[in-house]
Amino acid sequence: MATQKYGVGVDLGGTKIATALVDGEGRVLARTSCLTEAQEGQEKVLERMYKTVEDVLGEAGIAPGELAGIGIGSPGPLDSKTGLVLSAPNLGWTNVPVGDLFRERFQVPISVGNDANLAGLGEKWLGAGKNVDDLLYITVSTGVGGGIIIGGKVHTGAHDIAGEVGHIIVQKDGPQCNCGARGCLEAIASGTAIAREAKAGLKRGESPLLAKLVGDGDPTSKDVGQAARKGDPFSTKLLQESFTYLGLGIASLLNVLDPQLVVIGGGVSNLDELLFDPVRKTVKETLGTSQLADVLIVKAELGADVGVLGAAMLVVA
Amino acid sequence: MATQKYGVGVDLGGTKIATALVDGEGRVLARTSCLTEAQEGQEKVLERMYKTVEDVLGEAGIAPGELAGIGIGSPGPLDSKTGLVLSAPNLGWTNVPVGDLFRERFQVPISVGNDANLAGLGEKWLGAGKNVDDLLYITVSTGVGGGIIIGGKVHTGAHDIAGEVGHIIVQKDGPQCNCGARGCLEAIASGTAIAREAKAGLKRGESPLLAKLVGDGDPTSKDVGQAARKGDPFSTKLLQESFTYLGLGIASLLNVLDPQLVVIGGGVSNLDELLFDPVRKTVKETLGTSQLADVLIVKAELGADVGVLGAAMLVVA
User: Fold this and answer.
1) Which of A46, A151, B9, B81 can bridge B311 by disulfide, Cβ–Cβ 3.0-4.6 Å?
2) Alpha helices (H) along chain A
């Protein structure tokens, strides 16, 4: 990374737009955010995105011409070459040429990427992966997603789908996944999957402790973690089983990708050792004497900033 | 590929050393082969390898100095950066510095690669993948191996292990694999795994037709294919189940790598539609409406030449 260039990262989320101006070493010089309010239509959302960029430039006294570019992280399938967002159901967007619109507006290079990929890029340059070139980033949250970083760059694949590690099949004929298949990692180890199984367990009366904890509401993976920490056998077993599958999936991915490091982020990674212990144990047992058994599996470091920093790294790294 | 350069490919196998001189377009100008005879010791094997190189150069009247380099395909874990073969049990080799020895002998650039990776490279440049840059090559043979080609180059990974697609876990607690884990793709869909299940089925008296076909010997995956073609229900079911798992594994790999093309080679791919039909059906069903469902899955084209051509492509491509 050169130190004389600046980049702007824009993280477009279903709820919030977060934007930051960074220097070539990823130091944040200015930042802002606003609500997305997608219901007001795409024109308004785009205007708000432009304004966040203008605001951070204004705050730091930097002209668009001084930028290496603007990186934009977007949900949904997209064409990273052109910056066309094909579909973002959360936003109600179809075929929005975000790249072209930003290029016209700011006259600087624009890069658009998938949010999980950019989170991986952020961790590589500024987070847990600073000392490596090749890493596998996995986010365990509502869903399970990933980013494959090779030589410091995102491996996007032929259709910008690469890194969809939530859809590797870890259990033939297993639970139904939103994608239509059965037994995807996401259908077993995501926060949603854990909550689904917890709810089913509560219905069967399997955990008085968890039932007390959640009251009238539906359990979340965080609740399951709390119950497990209090020694609840049902919750402990549910997390162990779910994250054993995550470990099997990671062992498979290590054999395929052979990265230097695995970084796990996303809300569910905040279960900490409840997630990392079964994952690491399963990976070690599965890989046996292979050199891959020694690849570190660590927690992401950037937290909520990962999206905006990753987006900025698209243009300054 | 430039057309004015020449390269030599050496395919070091447990049984045979095959060597070819190719031009920049992969046309074979001279070729030779000899038995490996590993039992005579590594010095002798290396001498034989050197001689095959000198023979093809002599036959074509080309001096070593005119070579872009020599590419060597080797079994076993190796360090592709230095050309050190860490371990090749078939040859009885441990820590043999093949790269350094060849460099000293011929004074040209030497590249060493894993045989499945080089087969992928050969298919990319000269075989089924000529028109794409990114492909996933899978060999289904005694074992299951693979090569990941990204941008026309082998993705070797941090420990030269990348592409070990035979060791993705497709069935938790499934059959024991040679690697120590359970439920690896190789333990279910390789020729060896199919032969193992066929033998077990014969013991249980499940297939008179297959029993008649193999007589006193042990069944091979080829026998199982023959019996299936004759309508044997046991053999048909065994192949369908094994290759459904292969299809699930490929669907997972498509989500991770997002290649332009999948190429399947190795002896078991000669079962043709008995392998490709269940694989393609499973991949389509699993991937549903994803763009990945349209990625072509085709048979390798280079046959027995794939190793030596892939090795040559390491230096001329």
Assistant:
1) B9
2) 42-60, 98-106, 115-126, 186-189, 191-203, 208-214, 221-229, 233-257, 273-287, 306-316
* Residue-range domains of chain B with CATH: 6-115+306-316 (3.30.420.40), 135-300 (3.30.420.40)
Q: What is the mean pLDDT of chain B?
A: 95
A154 touches B at CB < 8 Å: no
Tell me the three-class secondary structure of B271-292, residue by residue.
Answer: HCHHHHHHHHHHHHHHHCCCHH
Q: CB distance B255–A165 less than 8 Å?
A: yes
Q: How do residues B8-32 score in pLDDT, each as one tens digit?
A: 999 999 899 999 999 988 899 999 9
Mean pLDDT along residues A37-58: 97
Interface pTM (ipTM) of the complex?
0.94
A160/B258 Cβ within 8 A: yes
Q: Does A209 touch chain B (CB under 8 A)?
A: no
Over 70: is that where the pLDDT of A4 sits? no
Interatomic CA distance for residues A12 and B239, integer angstroms:
47
Q: Does B194 touch chain A (CB under 8 A)?
A: no
Q: Does B255 touch chain A (CB under 8 A)?
A: yes
DSSP string, chain B: --SS-EEEEEEE-SSEEEEEEEETT--EEEEEEEE--GGG-HHHHHHHHHHHHHHHHHHHT--GGGEEEEEEEESSSEETTTTEEEEETTTTEEEE-HHHHHHHHH-S-EEEEEHHHHHHHHHHHHSTTTT-S-EEEEEESSSEEEEEEETTEE---TTS-TT-GGGSBSBTT-SBPTTS-BSBTHHHHSHHHHHHHHHHHHHTT--HHHHHHHTTS---HHHHHHHHHTT-HHHHHHHHHHHHHHHHHHHHHHHHH--SEEEEESGGGGGTHHHHHHHHHHHHHHHTTSGGGGSEEEE-S-GGGHHHHHHHHHHH-
B170 touches chain A (CB under 8 A): yes
Rounded to 5 degrees, what angle do the CA atoms B169, B175, B179 make? 65
Q: How far is A134 from chain B (nearest CA, A)?
A: 7
Residues B67-98: pLDDT tens digits? 999 999 998 889 999 999 999 888 999 999 99
Chain A touched by B120 (CB under 8 Å): no
Residue B176 touches partner A, C-beta closer than 8 Å: no
Q: Do A255 and B156 touch (CB under 8 A)?
A: no
Interface contact B251-A181, CB threshold 8 A: yes
Model pTM score: 0.95
Strand order in the sheet with B16-23: B28-35, B16-23, B6-12, B67-74, B110-114
Instruction: Give B154→chain A minimum CA distance, Å.
Output: 12
Residue carrying the six token digits 């570019």 = A69
Q: How far is A244 from chain B (nearest CA, A)?
A: 10
* Segment A7-24 mean pLDDT: 95
